[in-house]
Amino acid sequence: xxxxxxxxxxxxxxxxxxxxxxxxxxxxxxxxxxxxxxxxxxxxxxxxxxxxxxxxxxxxxxxxxxxxxxxxxxxxxxxxxxxxxxxxxxxxxxxxxxxxxxxxxxxxxxxxxxxxxxxxxxxxxxxxxxxxxxxxxxxxxxxxxxxxxxxxxxxxxxxxxxxxxxxxxxxxxxxxxxxxxxxxxxxxxxxxxxxxxxxxxxxxxxxxxxxxxxxxxxxxxxxxxxxxxxxxxxxxxxxxxxxxxxxxxxxxxxxxxxxxxxxxxxxxxxxxxxxxx
Amino acid sequence: xxxxxxxxxxxxxxxxxxxxxxxxxxxxxxxxxxxxxxxxxxxxxxxxxxxxxxxxxxxxxxxxxxxxxxxxxxxxxxxxxxxxxxxxxxxxxxxxxxxxxxxxxxxxxxxxxxxxxxxxxxxxxxxxxxxxxxxxxxxxxxxxxxxxxxxxxxxxxxxxxxxxxxxxxxxxxxxxxxxxxxxxxxxxxxxxxxxxxxxxxxxxxxxxxxxxxxxxxxxxxxxxxxxxxxxxxxxxxxxxxxxxxxxxxxxxxxxxxxxxxxxxxxxxxxxxxxxxxxxxxxxxxxxxxxxxxxxxxxxxxxxxxxxxxxxxxxxxxxxxxxxxxxxxxxxxxxxxxxxxxxxxxxxxxxxxxxxxxxxxxxxxxxxxxxxxxxxxxxxxxxxxxxxxxxxxxxxxxxxxxxxxxxxxxxxxxxxxxxxxxxxxxxxxxxxxxxxxxxxxxxxxxxxxxxxxxxxxxxxxxxxxxxxxx
Lengths: 277, 469
What we know:
Number of strands of chain B: 13
Keywords (chain B): Cell membrane, Lipoprotein, Membrane, Palmitate, Signal
Oligomer: heterodimer
Distance between the termini of chain B: 77 Å
Shape of chain B: globular
CATH superfamily of the domain at 65-233 in chain A: MetI-like
Protein name (chain B): Sugar ABC transporter substrate-binding protein
Region (Disordered) (chain B): 24-51
Pfam families (chain B): SBP_bac_1 (PF01547)
Largest interface: A-B, 54 and 56 residues
Signal peptide (chain B): 1-20
CATH topology of the domain at 65-233 in chain A: MetI-like fold
């Protein structure tokens, strides 16, 4: 390839990436500037890229809601707990399915995978009856968290990731009389950090954005998560877009912090297996 | 140290989880927090003196509705301290889905804010109210309003307000075109009268942009526009009050030709099929839409607030005086206002709590629908449904007097929702027809890919298939 065509290729790639970055960033920027504008202005189709009138009134309206801070705290608690339990249980299960030989392991694994084919809508009502009517767990953190403690998708992800780890190290640890949980904690977990970081970020983001289940099982304003709480700014014939944008901006902060704190592992995690040799 | 970092974090968060999971929420949350009024001071629950709890699921009907609700519950509890009211404020977008799940699980709330529906009745869980309605309560409701919460003649709900859908105009543009909007508000207008006026309202503005006579959200998000038009062509709905399919004659063809004419003459923008509701509103604010569909009397207050924001320098743009307008009607048929009632609908649960609980549910329902509850109609600039409400809020109206008068005039020609008389099965089929046939059909009309004749034929044949007639 000549240097000219190389430059042209890089230029095209850069142009595509810039456009893609623009498309990705604009909604976030819109959200941010929308949080400093009045509701009508923030919902206009062609937003002002730099608002002519800046106002903190949307933030005042958002925090004026008695439970606004509590919504964020609830989201942090729920998303953190679900992330920790998923990382713990999915990595344990992934390790077992990838590295341990036990009777029926394949059957159990495939049985678990088939549950992924069942649409969430099918299990929604039985789950609701179980949590609310039978266990009487309505309006509790347990009700929000319990169905999400570990997902089959995450078990599958971990099983695939653990399969790429060297089995020889496990054998060596076993020869050194390390227990199975010891192997998991001292050998597997340190090696699986990038995979676990990816799992943690994906799980945290998914749980942070979860709307319908927390809406279903909570009833008091104090138990709502940020996503459910923001919906209370939608009225019968109007919507307070400014306050929603302000709440969304505040609510996005924990995710940004999480991403940047795990960025190093995240990049390793998503590129693992991309290069051979 | 680093090796154990993950484990330490896991343990800390697991501890949070366990603590959170074990600490069940307060048994009776305070009213300020969103639910309940019994609070922590509520009497200790003993077998005999145990307060009965009535669960209410509602919506932010207007911006201050939660405050209103707390007041109403406070008044109620002063009278009935042994009945605890737990309310939950749902979101308009997702609340119906939550209710749907609860209803299907056999555990709906005792009271739910919504219009009555045949589908609720078919579950067997809707609570019939006729036995609880005293002559005083019946007499307080204005004529016809209670009927809006009946299904096949039986009372299942109490209306809080009577909603109205119409069109909304920009006073400056209407007056510049010499339109006598006051006369239209009171006497209505025909399609041919509207077509003449709309031509005057459609023009190119000095900045090169277009000012359209009529703009609607035609992006297929709803069927509001076609319903407004057909209702004013002698068709109350796809089926009549007996469930018979009626979109099969010249009335539907006339309606489609009327819309097609507006598109072809340029009165409606050629991009209508892509316009979302917000864009329609933006065009109205920008003076690019003389009239918008659909519009409700509450827009008067909403636009007045925007005018205040413009005065305060918070918003840039032209101040607008809002004019509530009726939808024009087919020259051969009378005007009909699309309307219905929303309010509280009562339910029992699969695990029935008994007659005493049902009576208490009705007591709460009446308390949330009484004279003071009329503030919802007042805030939304809608006609009151009870005499006591009209009396209490007399002279306190928020809308411009001419728009209030227009809403009252529109209330005189209400098309009764057919949902109140048809079976749940037919109602479900009508919904299917709207989703699968009407929505894409009207979009095709807006884009010009189907002619009115083709579409009328399609409506007839598909109606036969789906509704079996």
